Amino acid sequence: MKAVLAALSVALVGGAVAQEAPEPPYVMTRSVTLPSTDTDWDYVKFQPGSPRLFMARLKDGLTVFDVDRGRAVATVANSAGANGPILLPQYNRGYTAMNDGSLLSFDLRTLKVIARTKLASDGGLNSGSLDPATGRLHVITGSRPAESTWFTIDAASGRLLATTRFPFRKMDDPAVDGKGNIYAPLRMDGMVLKLDSSTLKEQARWDVGCNVSKMKWLPEGRLLGACTGDKPSAFLLDPATGKVTSRVTIGKGLDALVIDDQRGRIVASAYEGNMTVIERVGADKLRVAATVRTQFGARMMDLDHRTGRLYLVNADSTEFPLTDGKSVSRYHANSFRVETWQPN
């Protein structure tokens, strides 16, 4: 009997080992290297409905990469210091939050610069978000010692309408529901604020238990959030109750979060070198479907909604230790690349 049980155990173990893994959700099909300095980069964003990927490459400016042709086609003039593009075809306007505290505006069709307007005098701007309910663009400062500032812009004209200060050190891009509510992540405080989109007055605040840096509104009336820091995770939040209904672990160093409605996927890319592919199970639950290994430093990407392809950017780098136990990276010139990841 012992021999039979042992043989059965071996057979079961062997069967488990032999089980085939599913097809990978994404595979890299192309990598294009561009001329570059040793610059860092931040947001990359698609112009909705087009092949144009706008890449904020800081010292190298705002580069426009045509994904259908597989090459860079333009750099927006006077865009050195680009950090966060906001692309609004409904107004034929593009805006870019700059790291010197100015806002660059340009004609989206021609890329001709309209203005570069100084907004913040105490540091750089991070990015911004359009509220379709009011037609207002909220441009947000980067990290600050004590408070964040929102500059409210008329999206059609670029005119500054209001300046609002919040007593929080870091506020990232908010989610909007299109019904008069804005949901703003407070990264250092681990909370989400619900704001009235007309007045920016606080309506509620919810503790989500992690350094939340990404928020997305889902059509089903839920909020999708994602956290960086020492508790990297993606979560669902019910705005009717303020409760987190589901949470899954993602890679460390989150910097991009996209939703592919056609394939029912959520993808989070992280600095440590992976993309976490997440599926929804009903309205209030998430589950990790796969973890795609990329390369260290490949933190920023965007989704081409026309094709389902992901475009991930990275560059070679060397890391140097500092005396305080931290480190600093130096990027290698002419190594910046755009990777195409094809969905299966």
Automatic annotation (TrEMBL):
InterPro entries for the chain: Haem_d1_sf (IPR011048), WD40/YVTN_repeat-like_dom_sf (IPR015943)
Signal peptide: 1-18
Domain of life: Bacteria
Key words of the record: Signal
Name of the molecule in the record: WD40 repeat domain-containing protein
Species assigned in the record: Sphingomonas tagetis
